[in-house]
Structure formats: structure tokens, C-alpha cells
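Render Probable polyol transporter 6 in 3D.
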Amino acid sequence: MMEKGGGENPIRINKYACACAIVASMISIIFGYDTGVMSGAMIFVKEEFKINDAKTEVLAGILNLCALVGSLCAGRTSDYIGRRYTIVIASLIFLCGSVIMGYGPSYAILLLGRCVAGLGVGFALMIAPVYSAEVSSPSSRGFLTSLPEVGISIGILLGYLSNYIFSRLSLRLGWRMMLGIAAIPSFFLAIGILKMPESPRWLIMKGRLGDAKKILYKVSNDPQEAEFRLREIKQAVGIDENCNDDIVKIPDSVKSQGEGVWKELLLRPTPSLRWILIAGVGIHFFEHATGIEAVILYSHKIFDKAGVHDHSHQILATVGVGFTKFIFIVLSTFLIDKAGRRKLLLTSLSGMVVTLTALGIFLTLAENSGGKLIWALVLSIITTYAVVMFFNIGLGPVTWVYSAEIFPLKYRALGAGIGVAVNRLMNATVSMSFLSISAAITTGGAFFLFAGISVVALIFFYFFLPETKGKSLEEMEAVFTRGRRTENVNREVEIVKH
């Protein structure tokens, strides 16, 4: 089946491409685990080391500041050594971070472990969606590229379950087991990823046509589709589409290395590239500016404010957050190639505006009543789950799919790296300021603030994010070129007339 952008072909998922995306997504499970497990581990870390809220916020957010650095490094690294080996590096860095955190004899050493793990997180968040997007066909790219986000959800759920299981151990051993056990899957992933193929688009970018062609035949549904994808990628890289050499020299003007790429993307972008950059950075900015990290990381605090004061009950309630996230992220993966990115985004943000506002109202009522209004407590928990539901039906998975697919090949790793850096910066900002904001304007007031930001995000997505469903990666610049889009619409109208 030959897949051309814009068609309504039924979704066919190549098993080999799916296997590649699943293995790449394993690194996201490890990251998700660390995010989820830290939510509960912080309760016991705070108790053992007697740290205040400020140090707790630093412990929660430092991982994301280091991930910012890791994501920027990952862009250049993946262009030099390839997408596959970059995943190996991410796994090994995370392994080291997990071992240090599991050892954690002091707050300072624990913080060091979080910093090391953060570098690995930055690598993982940037490379997993890019790799998945580059091995996928246009019709199934949304499903396969959202698998890393599914992996994060699975990891968060496993982290919450780990909190509940290991919280029964002694204070000194429990949280160390929670954090250190992530080293085991990191080790096996570093070995397992070596069995997977390199991205065919990266290989072509390096002039290795013969190797890329073999992989494209494996990740495509039939030979015709493989040849079609090969021709499109060759055109995008500047190679004659009739060239059949195994090794070719790539023109310097299209190589994705060096200062020139930075300048072309950030200082002298074309109108379409500028629009792509705004869309890619904007969607990452709003993913966390709307406050989801406050719900995931501080869910035990939210439930405490609502009136659930027992630690084991708080941790059990956070398991419900993990289940909700997992269920709706899985549902989203099956909708993203059918409903489209734009429709899911707008639905997701509309729901978040309503549920964040409701959460602010119910938390304010529950907090002011001192936990005596049972109905406000129950509705606070329900709306917390509802916020997680709406986020994961659209904004969560679409962010990673959209930003991984819209940048042209030459700028993809760099653009994705910049997007992840902004993502981690906003994640760190929310996770390191939520307790302070809550103390200043109450927990309910903090969620009113997030609801307002969600309204701005909804407006931004409506005007700046066009639909990319069904388009090949090589067609994205045309999608973000206003003149070309108008021409395509006019051409379709003429075809219908005739």
C-alpha cells in the first residue's frame, strides 16, 4: 500500500516498526517510573532527612532542569552517532542515576543522583519519539510515536504501585528500594536496543542508502510503500531519487551538523520553518504550563488538602491517578490517527479548562472546611482524576507526536531537542514552585491559575497548530506554508469539479 499524505487509507501497522517503537519506548517507562515513584518517595525522604518544603521542591524539580541540558545535548548527539546509540546512552546515564539515588546516604547525594538521572531523562524524552516517528508509516505514525507517552504512563503507574509496596519496609530501606530498582531495566534496555535497527532517515542523512533501503523494506507494509518512502526521503535530503548507490556523498547544505543548522533554525528561519518552530516550542511550553506536573508529582499533597491525611491512603489515591493516566493515554493512541492531532488537542484543552476550574473550587471548599465537607473531598478527588483524563486524551500524547513529526529532517533532532528543553524547563518551573504558589494563593487558587493558562493554550492551538494527520514527514513544510496550503485546497476543489 503506497501512503501519500492526506489520504484516508486504513491504518496498517507494520509489526517490525511496531516492535522498534515499543523497544524505544522502554526508556520512557523508566523515566515515568522515576516521576511516579518520587511522588511517594518524597514523603519518606522528607521524614528521614528532615527537609523543608523548599528543599523538597528542589528535589522534585532538579531532575527537569538537568533534563533540559540532556535534551539539548541529545539533539546533537543523535545527529552524530545515530538515534539508536543515543537511546543506549540515555539508558546508561539513567542506570548510574538510579544507583546513586538508591544509595542516597544524604540529601546532597540523593540530589546528585537526581541530577544524573535528569540528564538521562533529557536524552530519553528527545530521542524516543523521534526514533519512533522516523521508522513509522504516515498512517500509523501517530499511534507508534505516542507509544513513548504510553510508556511514561505505565512507568508512573508502576512508580505509584512501588510506593505502595515498598512503603511497608523500614524508613531507611523503603524509599531507597523505590528509587534504586530502576537501575535493573535500564541495564537490560541498553543491551536490548542494540538489536534494533538504526533510523532509516538518519542513515540516508549520512549517505548510507543501501542500509536505509533494507530497513525501509522491513518497516514498510509492502515494497511499493518502501520505495515511495525512500524516494521522498532522498528528495528531502537532496539526493537524486533515481540514485541506487549504496553510499553517496551528502551535500554540505543539507547536513544537520554544525553552527549553520542552529542559525538557520533560530536566527534566519524561513516563514514555514519559523511557524514550525513556534508550534513545536509552543506545544511543549503549554503541556506543563497548564499544571499537570502539579497533579502527578504532588497528588498526595492535593489529597491531603482535600482531607485525606493518612499516608497509606494518600499513596493509594495516587495509584488511581496512575490508572486514569494509563487508561486514557492508551485510548488516545488508538484515536490519534483517526480523529487527528488537532481535534484531540482542542477537546483535551476544553476539558482541562472546565476540570481545573472545578478542582480549584472543590479544593477551596474542602480546605476552608478543614476536611469536614465530605462531598467536597470526594469531588476534589474525582476532578483530580478528570484533569488527568482530559490531559491524557490529547495534550499529553499529541505534544510528543506533533513535535517529533513537524520538523524537516535536517532540523528534526535539534528542533525536538529545543522543544524538550522548553518542556523540561516548564516542568521544573511548575514542580519547583507549586508548593510556594499554593502557600501564597492556596492550593485551589493555584489550579485557578492553571485553568487560566489552559484558556490561553486553547487559543494558541486553535490558531497556530494545523492538522498533520496522514502527512508524510517530508510533506510537513508544505503543511506549514500558507501559500502552498491554499494551492492544495484550490487543486482539490478543481479535482472535485471535474
